[in-house]
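Let's practice the habit of predicting before peeking. Look at the sequence and jot down your guess about where helices and strands might fall. Then scroll down.
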Amino acid sequence: MTTSHQNTLEHLAPEDFRFSRKAWIAATPPEVYELVSDVSMISVWSPNVSDVRYDDGDGPQAGAWFTGRSRRGDREWTSRSQVVRAEPGDTFAFVVDGLVRWSWTFRPLGTGTVAEQSWQLLALDPVLGSTRSDLEALLAHMADSVETTLVSLGRWVAEGGDHR
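Done guessing? Here is the structure:
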């Protein structure tokens, strides 16, 4: 077998591509949950997301759908996401285009909250990359994005950011 053949998607497992990052936020778990579950706010903190909106009549509840614009380098795209867990003050999770699961958990610590953001690949699709190297680069990019998002969220809360 050639190296390129061994690196194709057929030899990869989506569960191998996942990570979590944590940050302390100067707000209570219910307050941080409220911010994160208002998906229209994510563009305030995320370097890769813009114009996220729940479908008309939907909100932060399991089964709700929303649409968002994302970018990576010079590529931009629209995605559809469905909320799969919405437990106020505890957990907020959604699946993007059936390919990726994002989840947030919130745990009290002192006068604030440890917010943990996790990313997990659910399915292999050439749109995300066609080799292990592509998927590892995506994983690294998303981890950097999450770290930026968590730091920005923490700073925004500490500076008294207004909830729209």
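How did you do? The first helix runs from residue 3 to 6.
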